[in-house]
Automatic annotation (TrEMBL):
Residues 1-36, 76-97 are annotated as: Disordered. It holds the Pfam family AAA. Gene3D superfamilies: P-loop containing nucleotide triphosphate hydrolases (3.40.50.300). Transmembrane segments: none annotated. It comes from the Eukaryota. This is AAA+ ATPase domain-containing protein. Residues 9-22 have a biased composition (Low complexity). It comes from Truncatella angustata. Residues 520-647 form the AAA+ ATPase domain. GO terms for molecular function: ATP binding; ATP hydrolysis activity. Coiled coil: none annotated.
Length: 752
């Protein structure tokens, strides 16, 4: 890309200085007097005549300070004749607009640089006044406009570059511009317009002559630019590709199967051993570290060189004028999507996801997820696309101002990323607030995907926010589907409702009001046999109050003290940040009474108790209670809810609830209801009167599969009877095996 940089304090070129210096002299060519010769022809002529050189000193260490942050000073290694020939401009196969990286350096880490004042100038053939200088910067050609009048004209016509500093002059006798001279090419229309408005004089002659020399040096380039500006460009060579992406322009790309927009910051062509690469530096809007604001983020899109002309439709990055002509609805759709994306900042959001980022149990199953860009539990991606990687400003306000991509408000909190260039915050705010309103145009630069955390799978995935939906409160599950005494259900509802209120005075337990209380959490113990509704109770309460449920089992938490401590810390931190309930399911191993024989289990209990005591969350702990719980654990429990085994009346209630939830096309409902009410209790002499809720649901699921395989395809009572008998046969088999095993041990290990 073409760069602009200023000269350092010039040094005096003399034999005396050369004798005092310990550095190697550089050979510079004499100025050409062929005013009408093409730009590259003059350089070729000079490079081919080594006898027209003179020596100056001023050799300094490579990378020494140049007084300007944009570029190091030009290097000019002493090429031999073969190397000069290989890098001559205008040779066949070389692109005049594709810069090459200079990899030739002197031994010892030193590279020479020019004394700017000693570089020869080009004289206008008529006025005989100095107009510009030419030089090599590595293997790139460069020009320096030395005519003051010409500099002023170019300065008025050119727009500021995104990487230039505030109040920096783009054209001055102290600035060099490297190929492909972007600042001139991208501003050519305005420069030509100013040329036509000038009065006849030296300035107009100098500008016209300068443009003619530049156009002769870049054959075909300006014609292609005219096609692009008129919107008639249909295909483009790689060497002209950068013309499609002027700084500050909008481009569109399909990433992750979705359209998105970027704003161009700059382009740069890098020549490697076997190919050239166009690096397109772009910006987009995304949340900052606090999740409260959208700020510019940087990324680089690379295009590898190609040989023939490529159609516009085949380009990865398509310019805005092409999109407006071919698919005009994209901009409106991206603005709408960006508005939705910006609404997911700030506090964490609880959503329902319907995509396929995570495995699904069925085609219509939905995953509950958390979108978090603000708390300590947020997803942290590898790398930071907004971080400074090339010496340019990493201040988001600086980037936003340079590209017209404002997002900060005047009253925004201080951000440590802001003002890294020595500019005060107040200066940034006062400048940005004049044009701040982040309108529709800016929102189209938001990304198409965001990070979401699955509460079921406990993993982060990049998802499309179009597949996210607001979670609606479900009251029916708790009120109608949960089999529990109404008085107990009402007490649970009032306790949870009171705790979930967002005021300190209604919380049941406050660390400020209760002596010895470390946290403000509420621990509810759910104790009972398997299949009696412990987990279902926590899930129903989560749906009723529309609050996330962060569930962990013994397998998730582990049985090693270090792992348990880490997992519990992570669980309660996320639950607090996301305002969610916690379910520690099947936690028996952590709460049993301590004894002298289970030292490892004894070590787990204090860790478990400490996290419960310091918790600020509503926590459900479910256990089967086959053994007595530890007294220290019992003292940490605020509410205990028993879940006794179902009597037959409760079992019938569960049967009816499950059947009522099935589609009517799948069953003979009246027949099934009669069977459950009048016949099930006496079937096989009451052999099916001791079933839990999970067994009942499993029986109906398998009976449905059996019914679909028959001609009727509807669930009838005889399907259920067949499955019940299969289950009874298996149970009898297990009991028989157990009895045989007991008899075997008795015969072999005990004496009659």
């Amino acid at each position: 890309m073409g760069k602009i940089f200023s000269k350092p304090v010039s040094s005096v070129s003399s034999a005396q200085h050369a004798s005092e210096s310990h550095n190697t002299p550089v050979m510079l060519t004499e100025p050409s007097m062929q005013g009408d010769a093409p730009f590259e022809a003059t350089l070729d002529h000079q490079a081919a005549d080594p006898h027209r050189n003179r020596t100056i000193d001023n050799i300094e260490p490579h990378g020494s300070a140049s007084g300007h942050y944009l570029e190091r000073m030009p290097t000019n290694p002493p090429f031999n004749e073969h190397e000069q020939d290989a890098t001559t401009w205008g040779r066949s196969g070389d692109s005049p607009v594709s810069p090459k990286l200079n990899t030739k350096g002197l031994q010892g880490g030193y590279s020479p640089r020019f004394s700017i004042d000693s570089t020869p100038c080009e004289l206008h053939p008529d006025t005989r006044k100095k107009v510009f200088r030419r030089s090599w910067f590595g293997e790139k050609r460069a020009v320096q406009v030395v005519c003051e009048d010409l500099c002023q004209i170019l300065e008025r016509a050119a727009i500021a570059l995104p990487w230039s500093e505030e109040n920096e002059k783009l054209f001055s006798p102290s600035s060099w511009i490297t190929e492909p001279f972007e600042v001139i090419v991208h501003n050519r229309s305005e420069i030509v317009k100013h040329h036509s408005e000038l009065d006849d004089g030296d300035a107009k002659k100098h500008l016209g002559w300068f443009l003619e020399r530049l156009e002769a040096h870049q054959p075909g380039l300006w014609q292609k630019q005219d096609e692009i500006l008129s919107g008639s460009c249909r295909q483009v060579l790689f060497e002209h590709l950068w013309l499609l992406y002027p700084p500050g322009s909008t481009v569109f790309s399909i990433d992750d199967s979705a359209w998105r927009a970027y704003i161009i910051e700059r382009t740069e062509t890098v020549t490697l051993e076997h190919a050239a690469i166009l690096q397109i530096h772009v910006c987009y809007l995304d949340f900052d570290g606090t999740g409260r604001r959208l700020i510019p983020h940087r990324t680089v899109i690379e295009v590898t060189s190609y040989t023939s002309e490529r159609k516009m439709s085949a380009l990865r990055l398509k310019p805005e004028w092409y999109i407006e002509r071919t698919t005009p609805l994209i901009v409106a759709n991206l603005v709408k999507r960006g508005n939705e994306y910006s609404g997911l900042g700030g506090k964490p959001h609880y959503r329902e996801y319907e995509g396929d980022a995570w495995p699904k149990a069925s085609h219509d199953s939905k995953t509950k997820v958390i979108v978090d860009y603000s708390t300590s539990s947020k997803y942290t991606a590898a790398g930071d696309t907004a971080r400074n990687q090339d010496g340019m400003s990493s201040c988001p306000v600086c980037i936003g101002e340079s590209l017209g991509l404002f997002s900060y408000s005047e009253h925004a909190d201080d951000d440590p990323q802001i003002c890294v260039n020595g500019v005060s915050h107040s200066t940034h705010w006062s400048k940005a607030s004049q044009e701040l309103h982040i309108g529709d145009k800016a929102l189209l630069f938001c990304p198409p995907r965001l990070w979401a955390f699955s509460l079921n799978f406990k993993t982060w995935k990049s998802v499309s926010h179009e597949e996210l939906h607001v979670v609606e409160s479900q009251n029916t599950s708790f009120e109608q589907d949960l089999c529990m005494k109404q008085s107990r259900k009402q007490s649970l509802r009032h306790i949870v409702s009171g705790y979930m209120k967002d005021t300190e005075d209604v919380k049941l337990i406050s660390s400020k009001e209760t002596v010895g209380r470390k946290g403000r959490g509420l621990n509810i113990l759910l104790s009972g046999s398997s299949g009696t509704g412990k987990t279902w109770t926590a899930e129903c309460l989560s749906e009723k109050f529309n609050v996330p449920l962060y569930s962990m089992t013994c397998g998730d938490l582990g049985v090693h003290s270090g792992v348990l401590d880490q997992k519990l810390q992570e669980t309660f931190t996320r639950a607090k940040n996301w305002n969610s309930m916690v379910l520690l399911d099947d936690a028996d191993i952590y709460v049993y009474e301590r004894d002298i024989y289970s030292l490892n289990r004894n070590a787990l209990l204090p860790i478990f108790l400490r996290h419960l005591e310091y918790s600020d969350c509503l926590t459900f702990i479910s256990i089967s209670q086959f053994e007595p719980v530890d007294a220290a654990f019992a003292s940490r429990i605020h509410v205990g809810v028993p879940f006794p085994k179902f009597d037959f009346g409760t079992q019938q209630e569960v049967w009816h609830l499950v059947i009522d939830r099935l589609p009517h096309d799948y069953l003979e409902k009246d027949e099934l209801q009669y069977f459950i009410t009048h016949e099930l209790g006496e079937l096989d002499s009451g052999g099916y009167r001791e079933m839990n809720g999970r067994q009942i649901r499993n029986c109906i699921d398998v009976a449905l599969v059996l019914a679909r395989n028959e001609a009727s395809s509807k669930l009838q009572h005889h399907h259920i009877v067949r499955i019940l008998k299969l289950g009874k046969d298996f149970k009898d088999h297990v009991l028989q095996v157990a009895n045989e095993s007991t008899e075997f041990r008795a015969r072999n290990f005990f004496i009659d």
